[in-house]
Every structure is written in C-alpha cells, then in structure tokens.
Amino acid sequence: MGIFSYLCPAIHIIKVKMFVSRLVIVFCCIFFLTASVSAQRKQIGEARTYLKSGKNFDKAERLMTDLLKDSANQDNKRIYEIWLQSVQKQYEQANERLYTHKQQDTAQFFSLVRRMFSIAFCLDSLDMKPDKKGRVDPELRKDVARDMINYRPNLFYGGAYHVRKSDFQKAYDFFETYLDCTRQPLFTGYDPIFAEDSRMEETAYWACYCGYRMNDPLLALRHRKLALRDSSKRDMTFQYIAESWKTLKDDSMYIATLQKGFMEYPTSNYFFPRLMDFYTQTGQYGKALEIVDIALDADSLNELYLYAKSNVLMQLERYAESLTITNKLLTLNDKHADAYYNGGSAYLNIALRMDPQRHKKQLRDMYQKALPYMEKYRALAPAEKLKWGPALYRVYFNLNMGKQFDEIDKILKK
User: Fold this and answer.
1) Is pLDDT of 317 > 80?
2) What is the mean pLDDT of residues 38-60?
3) What is the pTM of this model?
4) Fewer C-beta within 10 Å: the chain N or C terminus?
5) Are 275 and 291 in contact (CB under 8 A)?
6) Where are any strands of DSSP class E within 79-199?
7) 223: three-class secondary structure by DSSP
C-alpha cells in the first residue's frame, strides 16, 4: 500500500470535522439571529403597549433607542416609526401641561420638538428607500409631514427661548432646523407654505446673530442672504456679516460689506468710522473724502463727520478747505479740542509753504492766526504736550514772544 492509502482516511475525517464545524456556526448564527429578532419583536411589542396605555412614553422611547444601538436595526423603519410616536406623545403631554399652567420644564419641551424633527427626517429617508425592484412607494411621508409642519413654529420659539438664555449653540440648532425644513425631501410639495412664511428672514437673522455670538463666522455667514431680507434688522445683519469676514481675515469682503452697509445706513455709528479707519490707514484719502461727503449729505451738522472731513483735507494738504470745515465745527461746539488743533495746524502748514524772505508779513499773519487755536487746544487738552508743545514753540519763536517761548522751551526739555 502506498502512502496515500494511509492518508485518505485521515483526510476524510478532517473533511467531516470541517463540515460539522460549519454546521455548528450556521446553527449558532440562525439561533442568535432568531433570538435577536425575538428580542426585537418583544421590545417593539412592549413599546406599543406603552403607547396604548397613555403613559410611560419615555420608556417606549428608551426601548427603541436601545434597539438602535445595534447596527443591525438601524435600517428598521418600524423602530423609527415607534420612536417618533413615543416622542410625539411626550410632546403632547408636555404641551398640555404648559397650556394648563402645570409644572413643565420649558427647555425639555423644546428639546422634544427638535428631536421629533430629527427622527422624522431619518424615518423619511428610510421610507423613501427603493424596494428590491427599485420601486419607491412611501407609506408614511404624507402623515409625518402633515404632523411636522404643524410643529414647525415651535422650532422658532425654541430658538428664541435659548437666545434669551444666551445658549447660542442650542438656539442656532433650532433656527437651523427650522430653515432646513425647506430643503428636506419630507416636505416635498410644501413650497407654497414656505414661500408665504414671513418668519424665514427673521429666523435667518437670528441664526446669523447666534453664529456671530459664538464667534463662528462660517455659521454666521451661512444664511446671510436670507437674513439680509429682514429689513427691520438689515443694518445689524450687515454688521455681523462684516465682523465675520474680518474674523476670517477676508479684507476684500469685509470692506465690501462695510461699503454696502454704509451706503444704506450712512449715519450708522458702525460703518462710517471703520471705513474711515481703513482708508486713512491705507492712505486712500480720496476714498475717505468720498465717504465723509456722503455722510455729511445725510447729516450736515454731525460733529464726527465734520471733524473727519477736516482731518482728511489736512492729509490731502487742502489746508484752507480744512479750516473752513474746522470753523464750521467750532460754531457747533466751541469745546471741541481737536478741532482747535486742526485749525492751528492748518495755519502752520500754510506758513510752511511760504518763502520766509518774500512773505514775511503773510508769515507773521499765519502765526498770529494759529496762536489762538493752539492756545485754546492747550487749555482744553493740557495732557497733550507732545502735540501743542512743538506747535506753540514754533508760534512763540516766530512771533518773538520771549516769555511764552521760554516756558514752552522748559516744558519740552522736561
């Protein structure tokens, strides 16, 4: 006998053992699957019993969420359906307690609202799954959508509640869910209702506000176009948008937003000073002058705008025009210290342009005119020695005012 005659019985025995092992594994799988299905049916049955009993709806919900911890159950539409029903029942109980002025946690009430929408969106996606033949025949969408559209206003109120509590993350989540309804397949066919929803723009504004308060520029900017349609808060929306672009270090969008906001709200305390700062810091004095002229067209007696124009004209070396604006400002407010400084500086800069040999009389006249401005500035702003000190030194020197010159000389030497 060859070696194969001895091996064949052994090989046969191994094959038998392997077959038995596979059989055991298959049996175990069937057993555990059957047990799992049995346990699932039992929990679903218990949950339905709770729903029919009119109490313990939270227990029914817990049974369903426990089932969903098993990944094998996450595509089970019936589990989501019962989960949604259990939360709806809790919501109805909480709503009744609020309506009858019984004790009810308001935050919990609103959390039920948002949870319903989260479940409903998941349920609808399962309801829309095609069958083995590729057919889609939703059996739950119509009823679920009808219920949810009635609950939707409470998403807005939930957001407003959390804004008042300064919980901006939760508030944002509510507003985002409210707006997201318009994009959800669950509400296919509800476009006319959304088109007539006057609260959409306001919701977008509050979402923008919450994103800004959380210092999350991307969230603040997400619904900016819709938020800007809320005319009652449009000026503030421009501000949140501008600050968001600034946080993202997008200078072009930041300035573009400031410009848009300023053109609509030229007297706003927000847009004007920021635009002026940007243009003056970048040496764009021509654009700064355009901005300040628009502002003065809106409010010709505004002291801030007049002072800003005086400054810009000084930078453009248009000293005579700057003096005209400065004097207009001083007729409105004769205690405006910086206006006196601008007036004195204008005369001193005009003097610098003159030939000391050919215009002696005119030079002396310029210093005499600068004198009262600078002395008034010193009286109103005594701490600003580095500004009025050198100016008065020059004035006193050129007017041969020895006593005053010696005083200023000592001050500057200190």
Assistant:
1) yes
2) 84
3) 0.84
4) N
5) yes
6) none
7) coil
